[in-house]
Amino acid sequence: MSNQKTIANETSVQGRGLFGGLLVNLRFLPAQPNSGIVFVRVDLDEPVTIPAYIDSVVSRDHRTALQIGEAEVQTVEHCLATLNALGIDNIIIELDGPELPNLDGSCDLFTNAIRTAGIVEQDAPKNELVITEPIVVEEDGAVIYALPEDNNKLNVIYDLDYSDVTAIGKQVWGCQIDEENFVREISSARTFLRQAEAEAFQARGVGSHLTTKDILVVGDDGPVENEFRFDRECARHKVADLLGDIMLLGRPIRGRIVAYRSGHLTNHALVRKLINWAERQERRKKIGTDALLDIRKIQKILPHRYPFLLVDRVIEIEGDRRAVGIKNVTMNEQFFQGHFPGTPVMPGVLIVEALAQMSGLLFAQRMEHTGQLALLMSMDKVKIRKAVVPGDQLMLEVEAVRVKSRTGDCRCRALVAGQVAAEAQIRFMLVDADQE
Known about the structure:
Structural class: alpha+beta
């Protein structure tokens, strides 16, 4: 186990934000062990500290942004990628504007500053997250796998598919992440845009201070008024973005990450899933189970009972937004007596019912819905994709799409061994539990 690190000396950089174009002064300061990475907006009436953690993330196009209250810092991913690769655990980053400075969309500005400041080891061990089993995130055609790695290092592979831009095409690139490889192979790789995207941005006044000589704009014939710095530079930069986003775990990670067409939103989803997975491992060590809600707690929330209670435990809850539960399917299930004798298959309607119950458990997390029941109103886009048989374990994933005072909508999936068995969009009416 290695120790935490910070920088040896203060250092500063200055430049314009990549998207907003405002001139920003940024200062890196050493930080105490276990304090993590924090941004501080010093230009506000009262300085605001914003932790580099997934809970601070807010949605912004084409970049990672963090916010606490009204204070925001944007385009943090290139700075965080540098800190990740150089092994920095604790640092204070002061800035006097809403976006980090960046010269060309690469990590070089931050890499050069941190290496000039020097890096020192601290008297505290790193709290590393070591991947010991496969973890998968799939969203809108993008996929990220976090996998165990024999060498106990961080290795990243990115599979880029820009088939609609001839000069980019399909690129696959990866390496083991350490300071030497990062400085030589990744740090100088720049943010890139299709030519049509760049023109659309500037038409809206975004990045209007930049020219095609400042940033990598790629047309069908290649970079516009520019040149690639590396072969597969675009895939290399995607590795840098991923390194920055996974720094939002708040701890170093060891394993192999394989990404296909992922962007910031998918990267953030991976971070959230890794945090939930790590919390389950800790619960399992402490109390012998990874359940957030076991069957006894579930029975206090849901009115269902044998033989119609179809959720055995809940293993993930993200506020009132998303939850994951488990239904263990055994030959002892009552419905297998007639569905079908000799060829037992779980009825699709009961899989959807399990998803509906899981949705009810998610809605129960909202304080204003305490004492209410979620009654099924409608089901849309129901698809049964795979037979579920004795011995299978159903992973029930539900995500709240919209919740009002009296209705709620959920997007639901049931999976077996990572394959979708059923999916549906389910609408509920929320009623008082004692309503007659």
